Amino acid sequence: MGRCHLVLGELLEYVIEAVIFDMDGLIIDSEPLWREAEIEVFATVGIALDDERCRETLGLRIDQVVDHWYRRFPWTGPSQNEIVGWRMLCHFSMRNI
């Protein structure tokens, strides 16, 4: 049996004790993708965002971002919950596939 098989066998004996979720961009910088998604999604409700405006919401949760822009530029059409639950999450998750 080759060394690769021995190493694989040794690794399979370990139990996964922890999983790392990178939710704040420490390992992977997701901010550029998020900013692009934010600009595109809010354009659908008539809000023209750019990089400078997006800095206002840097680090906020999705629901806080939606609330921020709704307070500044109230829109008609999709509710805030629809923007949070469907448009933002679906749009952002599709970009990371």
Description:
The chain is mostly helical. The chain has a single domain, classed as Putative phosphatase, domain 2 (DNA polymerase, domain 1). It is built from 5 helices and no strands. Helix 2 crosses helix 5 and helix 4 packs across helix 5. The N terminus is likely disordered.
Write the layout of secondary structure elements.
Blueprint: H1 3-12, H2 31-43, H3 51-54, H4 62-72, H5 80-95
Largest sheet: none
Tell me the domain tally. Answer: 1
The low-confidence parts are 1-6
Count every beta strand, where a strand is a DSSP E run of 2 or more residues: 0
Q: End-to-end span in angstroms?
A: 37 Å
Specify the helix fraction band.
55-70%
Features:
single chain, 97 residues, mainly alpha, DNA polymerase, domain 1, elongated, disordered N terminus
